[in-house]
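Dissemination and training. As part of the outreach component of the grant, students in the summer workshop were shown how a complex can be specified as a set of sequence lines and then modelled as a single object. The example used during the hands-on session is reproduced here so that future cohorts can follow it. Participants entered these lines:
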Amino acid sequence: MQLEIEDLHIGFPGPRGFAPAVRGVSFAMGAEKLGIVGESGSGKSLTARAILRLTPPNAVLRAKRLRFDDIDVLSASPRALGAIRGRRAGLILQDPKFALNPVMTAGEQVAEPLRLHKGLSRRAARAAAVEMLAQVRINDPAAVAHRYPHELSGGMGQRVMIAMMLAGDPELLIADEATSALDATVQAEILRLIEDLVSRRGMGLILISHDLPLVSHFCDRVLVMYAGRVVEAVPAAELRKSRHPYTQGLLLCPPSLMRPRARLPVLARQPDWAEVA
Amino acid sequence: MNGRRDAGRLRVLSTSAASISITLFGLILVTFLIGRVMPIDPVVAVAGDHAPPDVVARIRSELGLDRPLAVQFLIYLRHLAVGDLGRSVMTSHAVTADILQYFPPTFELATSAIILAVLVGVPAGVLAASRPGSRFDHLVRAVSLAGQSVPVFVLGLLFLLILYVKLGWLPGSGQVGITYEGVVPPITRMLVVDAALTGHWGAFWSALSHLVQPALVLALFSLAYITRMTRAFMFEALGSEYVITARAKGVPEWLVLWRHAFGNVSVGLVTVIALAYASLLEGAVLTETVFSWPGLGLYLTTSLLNADMNAVLGATMVIGCIYIGLNLLADFAYRLLDPRVR
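and obtained this result:
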């Protein structure tokens, strides 16, 4: 799997003119673990969704290159897109409370991609769905398969979500703030599960988060985004030694329990961060 | 687990039974009071304007109208309990018998109208929502706005003018052609159904062609409402996260539309359709008048104009009960379709 993005622009036409949200993002990745960090509105989610062309319908996409192996995503037919979505790349959204279909059981939702991508019969897909639920370490998967999303806890819901996205054996998994809506203890479990499954299957992972330490812990490489551009791309191990003042500022922000401070630090934003480097 | 679920169901059942009996009692009380408060003297309606005073007094006591209001209400309740709605002055039949005769044609009309409205309105709303701002969307919105704002009697007369008078494609008013009048033995009293059941095919086609226009007019009215609601519900559903999830899984667009988005919308639509249906059963008054359709609406209007209070109250009662029944049915369907309230 090879993903190439060059000079990606995403914007929205609005009453006060065109509002750019992503402004010239470029990166390439293979079967590695890539972290994308940045604050709300920095364009990280939109960038990731553009890979599957799942941006909102009114978004305008433009890029010199947006390729998933040999598929040109921007000009791909619905059929070609269907060959990427769920089959070669999966997307895990933030909150399973909203991201799971409330009127379908967990089993039905996991079985759906199995029927679509692997051509399994209804009965075989149902059995395979239970198997998938076991793979994401759900206890008593046969019973959980019959439950509706509102009967699941947040962590369990996110496991179902992961099972659903891995059902088509994709080569790339995009986790868009996949643990932000969960309790801290559950967060760690889900991340470990994702990491384990990704490594075992030799998949690529894009982990989107606003949590820098977490990303640097789980990923090989980190892109730092600010105002719609990538301001810095560093190996995760060297994040602490990063040079960009925005990244430095972000690293200084989290309060520490060991060294409490009266005033929390605030980013002193510089206008030139948003400019073309 | 099962025990708790059963207990929950029992509680739901008992609360809905309680709320139904309260609504029903309210309905009876209000219709009764309206009948007694109305500035129409039922005695005069029976005896005529020039009856001598002793006759008036005799009829008054025969009808029980000289007793206290509370006693009258209890008597009314007792009659109601055995299905006695009194006698109609106009037809001199029991009101119950009249309603049994006039309700089936209304039922036939409203049911064909709602089927038409759902078959056209729901897909139109879904497709319009899937392509917001498209030409189809604009068309659907314009038609549904017009359908709701043009009064039924205008629409009915327009249909008659074009399809009957100008083009001559469809017959005018009435339930069946005059040559087939009284030919079909009544079974369900829905003429189209009865004609088909008894194999009177000539009468069947005549009845069907007579049904088309009033059914279209009625359908257009609720079609507008159903389309608008479907479009609004679908539009909201298509913007939700689970739709993004479905697309990310690689679900083809038509399945995203019909399985994922519509699957969630259908729950709310059941209520919309049930209420639209109820208002058709009751709101057919104008349409039935325009097309001289021998249904409950026409019966109600004629009774009202003739100050035939027993008939008016009886018909009102029946319509009220239909409303309650359909609400109950919608509630039931809701519980069946939405796993969250099961």
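The CA atoms of residues 12 and 58 of chain A lie 6 Å apart. Students were then asked to discuss how this feature might be tested experimentally.
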